[in-house]
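As promised in the previous annual report, we have extended the structural survey to additional targets. Below is the entry for 3-hydroxyisobutyrate dehydrogenase.
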Amino acid sequence: MQIGFIGLGNMGAPMAANLAKAGHQVLGFDTAGVAVDGVTQAGTATEAVASADAVITMLPNGAILRAVADQIIPAMAKGAVLIDCSTVDVDSARAVAEQASGAGPLFVDAPVSGGVGGAAGGTLTFMAGGSDDAFAKAAPLFDIMGQKAVHCGEAGAGQAAKICNNMILGVTMIATCEAFALADKLGLDRQKMFDVVSTSSGYSWTMNAYCPAPGVGPQSPADNDYTPGFAAELMLKDLRLSQQAASSADADTPMGQAATALYEQFVENEDGLGRDFSAMLPRFEKRGRS
Ligand code: NAD
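The corresponding structure token record, generated without further manual editing, is:
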């Protein structure tokens, strides 16, 4: 397949490299002029997509996606598929889907879970929204870049699934961290806390797989001085998207709202910027009740 790849950052570069390694012709474009093994650099976004059967975008946010879509959709062949793997707001995903349906290309919103490690290892999970035809056309590429792809529904459903998942993640990380800080103050050993909770009804991915307490549970960013992993500011971005979606859908999400406010405080007014999102634990450790 001829593939256009727009946005060769921390995630996009390894994803594009995996497609090239699998034998596809990949023409990449990034405004920062990034070079990626096996990927030919295009001079413009439109050049990258003009003769592509599939185009993948991996961009920072919805505004940038919309601007790039304005450029590339008119240049794409009818029947080609545009796969947006960025995490963006549901409204932007639906707007780009609408624009594509008027112009010719198929569209799938397909945000990912699995982070930079998953992108490099080809083990991402894709949550996709779009027509059956669009999903079928994108599926062989999901197989190369990931280990699982779930077709969640019509356009926007992939972003909806991603935002809901990450709202649970943010809320759960905070709950896990505040429980560890409370356990400390109650004199409970952290290893004992892990041994109990990880096999009791309080278990979660944040406790069992990504434990925020250093030296406890499997290796995690906590064991590396909270070097991200998944940065607190990216968690904040996703929580804000959840709250934007909740407002636009008139959904009551008090825990999501509280988690958004806490990560906002942590990133913007405290020392959260550039630290892993599990560094909420040392934040709680330092604080008292008031
Ligand atoms: P990144 O900032 O490393 O990469 C984004 C790239 O897009 C940059 O290289 C930038 O130069 C390029 N870019 C910006 N504007 C452009 C334009 N107009 N045309 C072409 N290129 C442009 O970000 P990332 O970590 O690779 O994340 C990309 C997306 O994936 C984001 O939406 C993020 O939320 C999502 N995501 C990231 C992770 C993660 O762990 N990093 C995990 C899951 C999802």
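The mean pLDDT is 96. Residues 6-12, 29-32, 34, 45, 58-60, 64, 68, 86-87, 112, 115-116, 230, 234 surround nicotinamide-adenine-dinucleotide (CB under 6 Å). These points will be discussed at the next consortium meeting with the crystallography subgroup.
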